[in-house]
Write a structure and sequence with these properties.
Blueprint lengths: L27 E3 L2 E3 L6 E5 L7 H13 L4 E5 L3 H17 L5 E5 L4 H7 L5 E4 L1 H4 L13 H25 L2 E7 L5 H7 L3 H17 L5 E6 L3 H18 L6 E2 L7 H17 L5 E2 L10 H11 L8 E4 L10 H12 L6 E5 L5 H4 L5 E7 L2 E6 L2 E7 L3 H11 L7
Parallel strand pairs: 3-4, 3-10, 4-5, 5-6, 6-7, 7-8, 9-10, 11-12, 12-13
Antiparallel strand pairs: 1-2, 13-14, 14-15
Helix pairs in contact: 1-2, 2-3, 5-7, 6-7, 7-8, 8-9
Length: 405
């Protein structure tokens, strides 16, 4: 007769770590906000008003800041736009409050950058466009001499900006875009994440040689796999070189609607879950205000920031004892202005108490026509279904955690 060996006691497994451990980076001040250095992941966006429209720009910046955008970017395609920022900054301070501002500088932008550095908290430059590299017909390669010559030209044009920002205690973003790599990077490294990283490192080395380290790096692409590879490689190269600069994450030109949001979340959320990233911008082909809720949803889902109520709700099934979708909507509408709470809405008793164990409050269907309200794991009261939302609010009020909308 065959017998089975007695099971041997196994060694208890080490607890699985559910906390995201962020990459350690240096703090970079941008106005009254700090990127990196263990500070919360910063939310950014960009106005789409023409910077020459001072009134419109001030209004656009204020709209974004009021809904939680912590750093606002503007574009400065000309010297006139750069000078207009002085008045924008003055009007913001007079009619609202100072807002951390970043200016985008492209296309041979040294003079523009020097002017705009007087008026904003951070200047963003694109290494692929900052110094124009004239294409050469029938080129098949760049010689070492040609590569070095352009590198020297970059240093010559970048140095005055670096010194200005260094002396003012301001910041720079070295913002590489996959779609606008310099020609010599394309010839040397191809249209690859390696080319993006080397482009950023070239500018980083110049800044470091001038003792300037208030730097943030981005390596954006419109294709998520390219974006992921570029940021991961950048982290690897910085670790090898002893660099600890914070990273600005984004999927550029993500589009609009549901897919634009999913695409942005796939790129930004994946890296944040790996501990990579210190500030984010979701780039949607929609009003800038639509980007901010997506940013906060990504951060909240990962447990990196808590800026709204976390709702736990089952998907509904044949056991559900009330219209779950309708009730969740009512609960959300009544409580969405609160912050720092977890509220569970569960359709039946089978999974309810267990699945919502970590919630602050629970709303569970236990029997037809009645709702059980929970505080944590403890059932507090059972009330008629039509009184459920009101009684949930009363319970939150009784605990002193309610604020009026």
């Amino acid at each position: 007769m065959q017998t089975l060996e007695s099971p041997q006691p196994s060694t208890p497994a080490a607890p699985v770590d559910t906390v995201i451990h962020r990459r350690k980076t240096r703090p970079v001040p941008v106005g009254n906000i700090t990127i990196g250095g263990g500070y919360p992941v910063v939310v950014q966006s960009m106005i789409n008003e023409d910077t020459l429209d001072i009134t419109g720009s001030v209004a656009g910046i204020r709209r974004l800041h009021e809904i939680g955008c912590e750093i606002v970017r503007v574009t400065v395609p000309s010297m006139a736009h750069a000078k207009a920022l002085a008045e924008i900054k003055t009007q913001l301070a007079r009619t609202y409050r100072p807002v951390p501002l970043v200016a985008d500088v492209h296309h041979n932008g040294m003079k523009i950058a020097l002017e705009v550095a007087k008026h904003v908290d951070k200047v963003r430059i694109n290494p692929g466009l900052y110094v124009f590299e004239k294409p050469k017909a029938n080129r098949t390669e760049y010689t070492d001499g040609e590569f070095q010559e352009i590198g020297e030209k970059i240093r010559e044009t970048l140095e005055p900006l670096v010194i200005s920002l260094r002396e003012q205690g301001k910041a720079m973003r070295i913002g590489v875009n996959h779609g606008s790599l310099a020609e010599r990077m394309l010839f040397t490294y191809g249209d690859t994440p390696e080319g993006m990283v080397e482009s950023a490192l070239e500018f980083l080395r110049i800044c470091e040689s001038l003792d300037f380290r208030n730097l943030v790096i981005s390596l954006k692409a419109s294709r998520v796999p390219v974006m992921l590879a570029a940021y991961r490689l950048m982290v690897k190269r910085m670790d090898e070189l002893g660099m600890d600069y914070p990273l600005h994450l984004g999927v550029t030109e993500a589009g609009d609607g549901e897919y634009g949001r999913i695409k942005s979340t796939a790129g930004i959320g994946t890296l944040l879950a790996e501990g990579i990233g210190d500030t984010i911008r979701v780039s949607l082909t929609e009003a800038p205000e639509k980007e901010i809720p997506v940013c906060y949803s990504i951060l909240q889902a990962l447990g990196l920031r808590k800026t709204m109520v976390e709702y736990v709700a089952c998907p509904s099934c044949g056991r559900t004892l009330f219209n779950l979708e309708e009730v969740l909507h009512k609960v959300r509408e009544a409580t969405k202005h609160l912050t720092g709470l977890d509220i569970a809405v569960m359709g039946c008793i089978v999974n309810g108490p267990g699945e919502m164990a970590d919630a602050d409050y629970g709303y569970v269907g236990k029997q037809p026509g009645y709702i059980s309200l929970y505080r944590g794991r403890e059932e507090i009261k059972r009330v008629p279904e039509d009184q459920g939302v009101a009684e949930l609010i009363n319970l939150i009020k009784a605990d002193g955690r309610w604020v009026e909308p």
